[in-house]
């Protein structure tokens, strides 16, 4: 009986020998490419060049959080140096052990939600993910879509319905907004601190019409 052995073709090239050769094969899903000779910042330069040449989003898995953060910083440097406008993001791990009886920081969870939302909308060119983070569960895509709503100036939106939406999405009503995930209501003014925002938002209503949306400091 004749048997045939099928193995994936492997192409090994170094960065200095020509990244153009790698770009020719990157869109062939069945082809494995072994890239050698990349050290430290040269990895970031390779990824920046790669993102310029391919249309698909790229996910880079790093062995740990520190390596991923350093890689993103190096990528940001080369993008600024070469004036490249691409959205590179880092997907952080929760930062807690599986059975610790504590919650992750609101900043970390906000960043994770923002990255998931952008990735779902195909707004990220390259995503750097530590192994620890990729092993952690995330919000299902459909559930994330169902819990996202937008507001804009001049829109008709009942204030009471906004309060209901915020409570349904896990926000906590407080007398004054101080931390992410909080909101407060004072007359026709609703203050909201979204988990993905640096500063909280102040939404001013006139009857059921949104008059203004602006950031403010806490």
- Multimerization state: single chain
Order of helices and strands: EHEHEHEHEHHHEEEEE
How are the strands of the biggest sheet laid out side by side?
6-7-8-9-10
Instruction: State which percent range the strand residues make up.
Output: 15-25%
* CATH topology descriptor of the largest domain: Rossmann fold
Envelope shape: elongated
Give the % helix.
25-40%
Low-confidence stretches: 1-8
Largest sheet composition: 5 strands, mixed
Secondary-structure-based class equals alpha/beta
Please write the CATH class name of the largest domain: Alpha Beta
Q: What is the helix tally?
A: 7
GO cellular component, one term: excinuclease repair complex
Keywords: ATP-binding, Nucleotide-binding
Protein name: UvrB interaction domain-containing protein
GO molecular function, one term: ATP hydrolysis activity
Notes on the structure:
Keywords: ATP-binding, Nucleotide-binding. This is UvrB interaction domain-containing protein. It is built from seven helices and ten strands. With 218 residues, it is an alpha/beta fold. It has three domains: 30 residues, no CATH class; 93 residues, Rossmann fold; 67 residues, Penicillin-binding protein 1b fold. It has a five-stranded mixed beta sheet with strand order 6-7-8-9-10, covered by helices on one side. Strands 3-5-4 form a three-stranded parallel beta sheet. Strands 1-2 form a two-stranded parallel ribbon. Helix 2 packs across helix 3. The radius of gyration is 23 Å and the shape is elongated. The N terminus is likely disordered.
């Amino acid at each position: 009986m004749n048997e045939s052995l099928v193995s994936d073709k492997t192409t090994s090239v170094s960065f200095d020998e020509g990244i153009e050769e790698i770009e020719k094969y990157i869109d062939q899903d069945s082809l494995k490419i072994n890239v050698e000779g990349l050290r430290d910042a040269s990895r970031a330069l390779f990824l920046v060049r790669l993102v310029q040449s391919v249309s698909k989003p790229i996910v880079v898995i790093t062995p740990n959080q520190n390596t991923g953060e350093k890689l993103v910083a190096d990528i940001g440097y080369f993008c600024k140096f070469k004036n490249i406008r691409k959205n590179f993001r880092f997907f952080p791990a929760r930062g807690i052990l599986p059975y610790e009886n504590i919650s992750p920081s609101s900043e970390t969870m906000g960043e994770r939600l923002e990255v998931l939302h952008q990735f779902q909308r195909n707004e990220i060119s390259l995503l750097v993910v530590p192994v620890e983070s990729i092993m952690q569960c995330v919000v299902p895509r459909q559930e994330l879509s169902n819990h996202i709503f937008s507001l804009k100036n001049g829109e008709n939106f009942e204030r009471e319905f906004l309060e209901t939406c915020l409570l349904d999405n896990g926000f906590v009503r407080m007398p004054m907004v101080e931390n992410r995930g909080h909101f407060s209501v004072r007359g026709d003014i609703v203050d909201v601190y979204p988990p993905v925002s640096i500063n909280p938002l102040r939404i001013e209503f006139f009857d059921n019409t949104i008059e203004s949306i602006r950031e403010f400091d806490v």
